[in-house]
Specification:
Elements lengths: L3 E2 L9 E4 L14 E4 L8 E3 L12 E4 L4 E7 L3 E7 L4 E7 L1 H6 L1 H11 L8 E4 L9 E3 H4 L10 E3 L4 E4 L1 H11 L4 E4 L14 H7 L7 E6 L3
Parallel strand pairs: 3-6, 4-5, 9-13
Antiparallel strand pairs: 1-2, 2-14, 5-8, 6-14, 7-8, 7-9, 10-12, 11-12
């Protein structure tokens, strides 16, 4: 059976982050239906009431309906799974630097609140993501961020920086009022045998199509 990575913070809610081996809806909730979106690095969130035939463009999904497995795919961007155990609302967000900077995490929290969740009750887990030591960016990238974000950039070689995407994602979740956040601290770039990495594949001239899958659901 393929390895499924789970967050202690999310407790018993059906969920999982995959390795490069992947996972299916049945791996976390047998008999449930998988729901996915066409991810475009946006801040857009869709509230799922029932499965759709054609995935809409969005980078986060939320639902209060049991039996739907929300799914996102990543290969360096941060997969974020969220749950309010009191309201029984779940969410899944694809948060690359562009989406996180554009507000996809705050939008996900707001969409969950519209279903009865409360930010300070939400628990969020950040799955396998490219880490600080592996994520070199240039001055042009750095200038797109505010001065208050300086702590997420560590000086590297001349004209370049190391960007701490997981810490930035945690910061945006906390700024949105999320009550508890866990970063699983798994570096997609550094762990060749376990994870796909878009950046690593690009650097090595390999196929960049591989993705991890992250899922969460409410039990039926």
């Amino acid at each position: 059976m393929a390895e499924i990575i789970r967050s202690a913070l999310l407790g018993g809610v059906p969920h999982g982050f995959s390795t490069r081996e992947g996972l299916e809806a049945d791996d976390v909730l047998p008999g449930a239906e998988l729901v996915r979106a066409k991810q475009v690095h946006s801040p857009d969130v869709m509230t799922v009431v029932e499965p759709w035939e054609i995935p809409p463009e969005a980078d986060a999904l939320v639902t209060a309906r049991p039996g739907l497995v929300l799914s996102i795919v990543t290969a360096d961007c941060a997969p974020v799974l969220l749950h309010d155990p009191s309201a029984q609302v779940v969410g899944a967000a694809h948060a690359g630097w562009r989406g996180a900077h554009g507000g996809v995490l705050e939008a996900t929290v707001a969409a969950m609140e519209a279903l009865g969740a409360r930010a300070d009750r939400i628990r969020a887990a950040v799955g396998p993501t490219i880490a600080l030591a592996s994520y070199e960016v240039d001055d042009g990238f750095r200038r797109q961020f505010e001065e208050g974000d300086a702590r997420f950039f560590h000086e590297g070689r001349e004209g370049h920086w190391q960007f701490d995407l997981p810490a930035y994602v945690v910061h945006r979740l906390q700024r949105a009022g999320v009550g508890a956040v866990e970063d699983l601290a798994l570096d997609t770039y550094a762990d060749l045998g376990r994870f796909y990495s878009f950046r690593r594949a690009t650097h090595r001239g390999e196929d960049t199509g591989g993705r991890q899958v992250s899922v969460i659901a409410l039990p039926q």
